Amino acid sequence: MIKDINLLQKKLKNSFERVKAELEVEEEEPIFPKEMTENAYENAKRLTIREISPKLCGFHADTEEKTGHLDHFKNGWIGKKSRGFHSF
Prior knowledge:
Layout: H1 2-24, E1 55-57, E2 59-61, E3 77-79, E4 85-87
Antiparallel strand pairs: 1-4, 2-3
């Protein structure tokens, strides 16, 4: 029985040492290819009625309270009729 325990102990010790050695190996950073074009939206800013007040032709400001995290378009502008536009 002691022989079996010693064998089990050696196997476990070897397994733990292998795992420890694998954890200590540093992983290389992946190399990504350079972008082919610039990201046009990287520095984009979403304008709302808090930052800017354009001339509204066919639109009105949305002043209702935001009702939840899925209510993305609050504090923007709502179209009243077709062919409306904003003039900044």
